[in-house]
Structure formats: C-alpha cells, structure tokens
Amino acid sequence: MSRQQGASLTQDAWIRLRSNRMALVSIILLGFVIAFSFIGPLFCEYQYDEQNLDEQFLGPSKEHWFGTDSLGRDLFARTSYGGRISLAVGLLATSVSLLIGVTYGMVAGYVGGKTDAFLMRIVDILYSLPFTIFVILLMVLFGRNFLLLFLAIGAVEWLTMARITRAQTLNLKRAEFIESARALGFSHARILFHHILPNLLGPIIVYATLTVPAVMLLEAALSFLGLGVQAPMASWGSLIKEGAEKMDIAPWLILFPGLFFCLSLFCLNFIGDGLRDALDPKSSKD
Amino acid sequence: MSDVKIKSLKTFFHTREGVVKAVNDITFSISPGEVVGLVGESGSGKSVTCHTLLQLLPSPPAKVEGGEIIFSGEDLLRANDRKMRKLRGKSISMIFQDPMSCLNPYMTVVEQVAEPLLIHKMASEEEARQQAIDMLLRVGVNKIKDRLNAYPHEFSGGMRQRAMIAMALITKPALLLADEPTTALDVTVQAKILKLLKKLCAELGSSILFVSHDLGVVAEIADRVVVMYRGKVVEQNTTQELFRSPTHPYVKALIACRPTFTGNLEILPTIEDFMGNLSPIPEKRKREKRSDPPAENIEDWIKVRDLSVHFRQAKQGDVVKAVDQVSLIIPRGKTLGIVGESGSGKTTLGRAILRLTPMTSGKVQWQDQDIASVQGKDLLAFRKKMQIIFQDPYASLNPRLTIEQALLEPMQVHGIGQSRKERVDRVVSLLEEVGLEPDYRRRYPHEFSGGQRQRICVARALSTEPQFIVCDECVSAMDVSVQAQVLNLLSQLQAARGLTYLFISHDLCVVKHIADEIAVMRAGKIVESGNAESICLNPQDKYTQELMDSIPSTSRTGAF
Amino acid sequence: MKNFFTSRLLQAIPTLFVIATLTFFMTRFAPGGPFDSDKAIPEEIKIKLQSHFGLNLPLFDQYLLYMKNLLAGDLGPSFKYVGWEVSELIQIAFPVSLSLGVSALFIALLIGLPAGMVAALRKNTWWDYLPMGIAMVGICLPSFVLGPILIMVFATELRLLPALGWYSWTDLILPSLTLGLFYAAYVARLTRAGMLETLRQDYVRTARAKGASPGRVLLKHAIRGGLLPVVTYLGPAFAGLVSGSFIIESIFFIPGLGKFFVTAAFNRDYTVVLGTVLFYATLIIILNLLVDFLQAWLDPKAREQR
After folding, report:
1. What b/e readout covers C7-43, taking b as 16+ CB neighbours within 10 angstroms?
2. Phi, psi of A83 (to 5 degrees)
C-alpha cells in the first residue's frame, strides 16, 4: 500500500460501471436523446405548434427532417418537445416519489417498533389499492392538469421506494458500525444523515434510475388513453397515439416518437442494471 | 483400495486482479480408515483443496493447473462430470461449515438425508426413508420420531450438523471430507460432534479429511496432521510427533501463539516471532501469579446489581429472559471475563451495561451514579467514558468514511481537542499506538485486512479517552496469529492507560489468558464467578466443569 | 394458516370501505354530472331524472344510501345505459377482459419462465444474451407501441390475423400477445435473477456434493428458491394486467370492462365508475391473497411469519 489517498467505494463503483460496455453506450445514447430534446429545437426552424395545412402528412424530407403530421406540424420539433415533456415528467415524478418514499421508509425503518408497524401497515393497504385505476380516475375527473399528472404518478411509485428504503434501513440499523455510533454518543440525527443515508444511496440510486422509465411508461399510457397532456402540448405518449391512428398513411408519425421513447427506456434500464452491478459486485453477472 | 493420494496439486483462481495461487503444489495422502487433519489459517488453501477433491469449485475463476488425485486407482482430475457424479455422495461425501445455509430450506430433513440413497439408486423410496430415520437416530437426532416432516429451520445448530453428518454417511462412503464442520458450534456441542464423527467413521470404515483452522480441534480427532500455509504444505506428521517436535517455524508459531489453559504468558508470541528472523525466540515474560488481593484493597468500581433484560416474543407473547438478575463487580484497571455459549446472554449483558440494549430492570453503579437511569447530557458524558469493540471488524466501520473521518468524528461530538489540527494530531498518535501506519489514515476500511480493521476499531474506541471498554467477542472471528496480536495490543493498552475491560467470549482459553476475574454465564444467569485462576483450575459448578472438559486437550496444555 | 387467512380478510374490508368512500366523493366532487353532457335535455326532464336517481338529495345522504345498498350487494343502476344494472354490465364485460388477461398471463409465463431458466443455466453464453436482450427490448416496448406495430405487420400487411373487434377466438391472439409479451420480458428477467441467486446458494452446492445431476439440482433444489421472485411479482403483475387491459381494449376495440370504465368516467356515470372500481379492487385483493398463499406454499419459513 504505497499511495496515501484511498479509493472510496464510490470511485470503485464508477470504475466498475465504466467497464460495463452496455451501460456506457446507454449513457452516451441517453445523453444524445437529452441533447436532442433540449438543444435540438435550436437547429429547427419550426415551432412545435406551428400549423401549416398545406403541408399535411409529408414524409421525411430536407425541409421537414421527420415529416409532418395531420395539421402540418413539423415532427422533428414536436418529437423534441415531446421529449422535454416526457423526460421532465419522468424526472419530476421520480423525484417526488423519491423524496416521499425515502423519508418515509427511513423513518419507519430507523424508529422501528410500533411506529414502523403502523407506517408499513398503511403502505400495505395502499399497495393493495388499484392505484393505476385511481390515477386514471383522477385524470378523467379533474382534467389534464400537468401538475396533477406528475403528482399522481409520483404518488404511485413512492410506495415501493418506501419499502426498499425501509428494508435497507433495517439492515443497516443492525450493522455494528451503527451500534458503534450509538455507543460513541452520536445523536440520532447525526446517525441518520451521516451514517445511514450515505449507505442507502446505492440501492436508492439504482431504484430511482429504474423508476424513471416506469414513470415515463405510465405517463405515456395515460396520454395514449387521452388522459395525459392536452393539445397543443405533446408528450411522446400523445405523439404515439396520434401516430398509431394514422399509421397506415403516415408511419413516420409513430416511428420517430416511438423510437426515441423506446430508446430512452432502453438506455435507462441498462444504466440502472449497470449501476446495480457496479454497486454490488456480487450480484447476477459473475 | 480406498486410499487417496494427492500429488503436486495446483489450483489457481483467475480473477480480475490477477492470478491467485490458492493451492500451489501440495502432496499428501490418506490411507483407508485414517483421519487426516488439514490445518491452516485463512488463505492457506485448505478449503480449496477439499473442494478440488470433489470438483465443486466454480469453473471460470478456478482452474486446476496441475497434479493428480488418485482415488481407487483413478485420477479424479481427469474424470468427466458423469464419473464424478457417481462418486459424489457415494464414495466421497462432504460436510460443510454452516449447516443452516447448507441444508435446503424447502425440503424436509428426512427427505434430504434419504436423497443420496435415491440419487445413487441404492434403495427404494420407502427403504431410503426408513434408512434415513435410522441414520438420524444413530447420529443422535432423537426427536426425529416426532418430527418426521420437520424442516431445517426447526432444528438447532448442533442437530442440523448431525443431520448433515447422517446425510453424508448414509451411503457408507470410503472418504468423508469435513470442511470446518464444528467451527460454527458451541464448545460443548463441538466436543460431542467430534466424538460422534470419530466413532461413526471407525464403525463404517471411512477415512476422514478434517479441515480446520483450529489445531486443537484437529488434534482431538486426527491420526495425522498436514499443515498448510499460503498454498503449500509446510509440514505433515502424526499428530503426536507434530506437537512434540514441530520442525517448521510456522507450525511452531501456530502451536505457541494460541493462549492455552495452563499457560501463563503475559504477552503471546506471534507468527512474526517465529518466521523471518533467525535470532533466538525471545523469552516472553511470564505473568506474575495473580494472587487474590487483600480484602481491604478491593476497589469496587462498576457494580452491576440485579440486571435483567427481557424480550417479548412477538408471536407467542411469552417473555425471553436473555439476562436474568445478574450481579457483578468489575474491578478498576482489571479485566472481568464473561464466558458462555450461544444464548447465554453474555452479549446482551455487555450491551445492556453500555445502554445499547434497554434494561428491563436493575442498576449499574459507577462513580456514585446509576448508568441505567441517566439521560441527556449525563448519558453523553458516560458514553465518553465507556466504549465497545465488536466481533466483526468488517461491519464495525462505516464503509463510506475514511479512517481519519471515523476517528475525528467522536472527538468532534465530545469536544475533545481545541482545533482541527490538534484532533488530527491525536488521530496520528492513536494510530501509532495501535500499531498502524498513520499515513494510511486517508484510506477506506475495505482497503485494510481484518486484523488491521480491528485495530482501527480499537483506535476509535480510544478516541474519546475512555476508562472502560467492553470487548464483545472481539477476537473470535480471527485467525490464531492475528488473535494473538490483538490480544497483546489490548494487554499493552490496559497497562499503559489503566483501562478496565469487560471481556466477553465463548473461548475459555482466551478468556483465561486475558482476564483477572471470570464469570460463567448460562441461560441468562451467572453460574459461577471468581478469580480466573481458581475457576479454571478448580471449577465448582457442573456446567463450568462441562465447559472445561470440552476444551480440546492440546488447546488446554499446548502439548499432545 | 387459518389466522393468516382471516387476518387478511379482515384487512380487506376496511380497504374496500376506504376505496368506496374515496371513489364516491372523488366522482361527486369532479366537475360535471351525468346529465350535463352533449344532448340538450329540457330542464324539467333533467330534474326528474336527477330525482329518480336520487341525485337531488344532500350528498351525505346519497353516500349513506349507496353504502347501504352496497352492503346488500346492490351496485345500483347505470345512469347512462338506461335500464341496465351495473352488475349486469359487469357480468357482460368482465369475461371479455378476463379471457384477455388470462391468455396474456399464460403467454407471459409460458415464454418468460423457460427463457429465464435457460438464460440462468447457460449464463454468459448466447443462450443468455439473446433472450435477455430481447427481454430488455420487451420491457421498453410498451403495448401501445407494440400493438399498432403488430397490427400493421400481421393484420394489414400479412393478413394473417384479425385486428379489431371481438368476434371469434382468433381475435384473442394479437391482443394477448401484445399484453403478454411485455410481462413475459419481466418474468424472464426476474426468473434469471432468481435462479442465478439460488444457484449460488450453499445448499445447491450440497446437492451437487451428493452427486445430484444438473437436472435434479434444478428441478428439485433450485426451482423453489428461483421462482419465489416471480411469485412475488405476480401481485403487481395482476394489477398491471388489469390496467394494461384498458389500453389493449382501446387499441384493438375490444368490448371489455376497461373500456366501460373509461367511458363511464368520461360520462360521469357514477354508479358504473364506483361499481367497476370496487369490482377491480376486490379482484386485486383476492388475487394478492392467492399470491400470498402461493408464497407460503413454496416457502416453509414464510408459513410461520404471519
């Protein structure tokens, strides 16, 4: 051991992640998709809601790189706009569920005893509710409020996040370094934030990365049912719906949004898997 | 011909970090009916040797690079999988260390014990079942008649190991491979299992390859001993000869650095003393005989009175009395050893005194205050003075903090040191005091070995300048050589700082070595207590006597 | 086991109560009523309709009335489909959704389980990479993308299978494939992970040490532990199949319960909405109970925990 500076677990994990080719490729591709959604419009002369009834259902061309839709709107612009919406919903809803779920689970796991039993009983009951049905109901009844949309979606996912966090917290609580911390007189707050939370981050990050595609799927499904974002706003889900309706005459309308959507899900899942393997070297692969 | 000849065996592991030569050219043999002990510390390659015999190693990382294993005239290493399958469980059987994880939790015990007969088509289903029951009775699982459909988790550790033995011996194999079968068991259970193994295998005519890190245990059962170190065989001889006149310095070290019952050394010799330097082995200072101090000079210090810890079982609602009305006196500057087997409550006692586990009732008097009832700032003040070192050095350190951070934190919380620089200086001196290189303080726990991590834990316990330290099985998970180092460190620290220890362990020899007074616990109660020498040489209580008798004789005396 | 059964049943009752109450008030607080929409109805007839259905009573009284009827097993009449009881509508529509769901589940297990097991046994070979690669694509291809593509390929271009409507058993194929393939992918990945984890266990090594053949190791020793994650997943999978069916019924024009539900919600047909939600909730609770039983059957240790 010659070097003085140690290699933290995070650095080790990063090295392992870098050597996972699929994960690396996915990170690059995802970066490309994000760039397309947020910077792409700078290269495009059309707005996403610019209608031009002379140019309906045009195939991909030099003028309109991805073609146009039933109202003559440029698909490139709409796809990148849809990307912004879909990715934003994914990120925001996941953040909401993360915040609620992690706090809930950490408290339940750390406090333990009756409080834990009570909190988890609530989770169990909520878990058995047909949440998706409720979300659909909500969206139908109260209209397509964008805020409501991602709050509702986030509310679906926090339950699993809470369960996972609680299980991990319970494990950590029993670990001897936590007992040492108590023996050394550390306050509960210090133990929670300085010792437990950093060690929870691994599984949380993995799960969060895998939640984003699940959330995006849910949003897209809702949009497909006509319950998600409202025209003229668009998400990949609503674009796919429009494209599916006109698939026989203009297949590019489903092709491009579908491609970007599936590609994002694909990359996120691979990155999530890669993170899981990097943070726990004993799991599945070898 | 059922003897086994291992010649020039080489098994390497090809990992991402390089090639690990786990077994590097070893040669020994086992004659029919013979018991051969394979001894070594972690990393010696003894387990790998055992697994290679049955070709149970996972093939991508592990690869047999050379040598031959001749069994019944055939080279096992050249045998294909089908041939090996015919041998496994029939001519060569294996038992493992942890019976809980090694038994299928989804199958009944009787089913699993009967399975080898069915696999090798040695009996019909009905017959196999009956033979399994008979075998289980033979190995001492007496309750099996009432529990024919019981699952492994419904049995105790000792019973599970007996079931594994039944499972391995039901086909009357020529060779039994035993990989640390008693390491996870209590000392009294261990003694019984060793007797059982020896008796049964003699009756069936099976030879045994008994793998263990514990020389004493091996000496109880083996006719010959093979000692491995870093993948090579350093010495092999009959048990008697090996103990009487060991030749290789490593073997001498192994024998010498274990604390024995009759030994009286203040500082244990360590491996380094034997290997490496050619100078004569320094004479270790023998401890002055510890006499009972005159009555007036007893300085009572920490008085535990009627301490009880009860747990309520969630399912049945009945109460488990983990600690039941225990009273102790821990003398200042000395070591009180608590000895007991699993379930005796010794660990719970230590934690209760430290207020890590809530007490159901009782008082802990220290410096005119009852630790059991202080709160808030007073409790924090007490926490500064009393610390604990745990068994598992791997789980005792936060993997996300550098050593420096881990040692600075207690100082910050208790306000030790006026500035950061002063605290860092203290960290440096602490690390030096425990024998670690201060330059390594920016490293993370996973970059250190087990023994080094335990030293870091000791340093962390010392960072608050405590007066009282509970050592909860803190050397139990270690190799003998590392154990000696840590025990020496604890002794030195006690002498230098005037520390008081509560030393909890299941290992009588270790406790006798380090403790001035001993209390023996069983089922939550103290069955006997007093001066260490007198308890060990003249135990009054029947349970204490049973504990003493269970210690392997070579561990007791250091000689065969 | 009996305690387990009764405790879960007892847990189910307040759950359903909460669901019913929540849904009731949610629908009532939403803007719009059942008779506000398109066709202009003369005011007097509107009032008559409302009083006929009890909509002119104070809200809380309506709630109590509904609950009372519910306990008697009466879900009430539909507001929109005049002359129909909600229970009758469910009776007609549900079997359609049920056959769709069951076939999808069947496909998911039939394809997913073997694929996952083979991938685990032949880890890091093409038997692993190919199915798992496809599975990865599968979980990224939602039903509303896959469905139209399958329709285009098999129905429009190749003219092999019917696409829309619900006339003969062949109508079942494309929809259940669309719904089932997604879950097949999940099942395959879970099975592979579960099997790999189990195959690493010490007791599997013991089985090999006894001379068991690879087949025996797999089928007698590893399979229970390996399948447990899949069984645990069945709970959320059922819920997912239920909600996934909404989309499928929409794409393939299948007259199932899902479509009824969405339409009723749009139309503010309160009783149909409430009835469907309660029906689905009960269904999911029963299915979850079954899953718990299955878990307890597979894992002896779980039997004692509850």
Report:
1. ebeeebeebbeebbeebbebbeebeebbbeeeeeeee
2. -65, -45
| Residues facing residue B15 across a β-bridge | B18
Q: Percentage of chain B surpassing pLDDT 90?
A: 53
Q: Is there a contact between B392 and A176 if contact means CB atoms under 8 Å apart? A: yes
Q: Please state whether the peptide bond connecting residue B259 to the residue before it is cis, i.e. omega within 30 degrees of 0.
A: no
Task: Tell me which amino acid residue A128 is.
Answer: S
Mean pLDDT to the nearest integer, B85-106: 91
- What is the CA angle B195-B200-B206, rounded to 5? 120
Under an 8 A CB cutoff, do B388 and A183 touch?
A: yes
CA distances for B553 relative to B190, B532, B549, C134, angstroms:
13, 19, 8, 63
Amino acid letter, residue A96: V
Interface residue B526 vs chain C (CB under 8 A): no
Radius of gyration of chain A (CA): 23
Within a 13 Å sphere around the CA of C235, how many CA atoms are in the beta-carbon half?
Answer: 19
The closest CB to that of A142, out of C14, C19, C30, belongs to C30
CA dihedral A61→A64→A70→A73, nearest 10 degrees, is 180
> Token pair of C134, please?
């496809």
% of chain C beyond a pLDDT of 90 = 12
Report the residue of B50, B97, B98, B102 to disrupt the C interface, i.e. the one with the largest count of C CBs within 10 Å: B102
Q: Which residue of A has its CA nearest to C8?
A: A125
Q: What pLDDT is attached to residue B294?
A: 43
Using CA atoms, how far apart are residues A121 and C13, in angstroms rounded to an integer? Answer: 14
Residue B168: its pLDDT value, please? 94
Region A8-14 average pLDDT = 81
State the pairing for strand pair B468-472/B500-505: parallel
- What's the complex ipTM? 0.82
**Is residue B88 within 8 angstroms of chain C, CB to CB?**
yes
Strands B207-212 and B35-39: parallel
Q: Judging by DSSP bridges, how do beta strands B62-71 and B74-75 pair with one another?
A: antiparallel
A133 and C243 Cβ atoms separated by less than 8 Å: yes
pLDDT per residue as tens digits for the range A121-168: 888 777 767 777 777 777 777 766 777 777 777 777 888 889 889 988
Q: Distance between CA A207 and CA A197 in Å, rounded?
A: 15
Long-range CB contacts (< 8 A, 24+ apart) of A34-41? A34/A83, A34/A87, A36/A80, A36/A83, A36/A260, A37/A80, A37/A81, A37/A83, A37/A84, A37/A87, A38/A80, A38/A83, A38/A84, A40/A76, A40/A80, A40/A83, A41/A77, A41/A80, A41/A81
Return the residue of B nearest to C220 by Cα: B107
CB B11 within 8 A of CB B65: yes
Spatial distance between the Cα atoms of C53 and C62, rounded to a whole number of angstroms: 10
Is-contact A285 A277, C-beta < 8 A? yes
Instruction: Give the DSSP H or E segment for B12.
Output: strand B4-15
Q: Which two tokens stand for residue B241?
A: 């000869």
Query: The tokens of B439 are what?
Result: 């330059």
Distance CA B216, CA C301 (A): 37
- Beta-bridge mates of residue B10: B24, B66
Structure tokens at C167: 């006339």
Dihedral over Cα of A153, A155, A161, A167: its sign? negative
Please state the rounded mean pLDDT for residues B192-218: 92
Residues in chain B within 8 Å Cβ distance of C216: 119
